[in-house]
Each structure stands twice: as C-alpha cells, then as structure tokens.
Amino acid sequence: MSAWTSDELDRIGEAEELEIASIRRDGTLRKPVTIWIVRHGNDLYVRSVNGRTSSWFRGAQARHEAHIEARGVGKDVLLVETDHMNDQIDAAYRAKYHRYAESIVGSVVSPNARAATLKLVPR
C-alpha cells in the first residue's frame, strides 16, 4: 500500500464530489457513480447515502477495491469499512457541504449512510 501525497489529499479532499467505480473480480471497472467525499486529517471518506443495501455499496463490499477520479487525480484505492469516527466524519460533511439544505446534508449523515462509511486507502 502507498500513502496519499499532499497534493492528492488536497485536490481530492477539496473536490465537491468524485467518480468512484468498484473493481469487478475480472479486474474491469463497474459503472462509476458520483459521490460526496470528505477529508478528515490525512484520510478520505465516502458514504453511500442509500446505506449498506445500495447496489454500489454491495459491489464495493464484494472486492473492496475501486478506482476514483477527482480534480484531475485518478487513483486505485482499497475500500475499508469503518465506523469508529462517525461523529468526526459527520462534522466534516456538515462543514464542507454547509451551503446545501440540511435535508440534503442530512441524508449523508443519517444512520443509514453512517453504516456505509468507507475509508479510501491508496494502493
């Protein structure tokens, strides 16, 4: 595994959203989805608004690998399930997306979305 460079963290973390495509068993990419991303410290996180039952999240669980694209950065990542920092991740989402209606931001900090939190780890 590798670490994020400072430039990658800044560019991806500042992106409004990113494209993420989970990797199939044969190594090809699934159809990418657009998802909100947050940075907390030196880590990047995404959440499935539709929770653990969404088709995207189930595909991500199958392989735990994906390819992301944001602000000119393309990177293969591992998708690591986490729930140990949900309060801090909620705060990061609220701070970053504060200009959106609470009902919109509320969907990404809901219990359903919190249960589908993934940390992006570069490979």
Structure description:
The protein is an alpha+beta fold. The protein contains 5 helices and 6 strands, in the order αβββαββαααβ. The protein has helices spanning 6-14, 55-63, 86-96, 102-108, 111-114; strands spanning 17-22, 33-40, 43-47, 65-70, 73-81, 117-122. A 6-stranded antiparallel beta barrel has the order 1-2-3-6-5-4. Strand 2 and strand 3 form a beta hairpin. The longest helix is centred in the C-terminal third of the chain and has 11 residues, at 86-96. It is globular, with a radius of gyration of 13 Å. The mean pLDDT is 93.
Q: Return residue spans where pLDDT drops below 50 for at least 5 consecutive residues.
A: none
Biggest β-sheet: strands ordered side by side in the sheet: 1-2-3-6-5-4
Distance between the termini: 5 Å
- In sequence order, what are the helices and strands, one letter per element? HEEEHEEHHHE
Assign the structural class, choosing from mainly alpha, mainly beta, alpha/beta, alpha+beta, or little secondary structure. alpha+beta
Keywords:
globular, alpha+beta, 6 strands, 123 residues, 33% strand
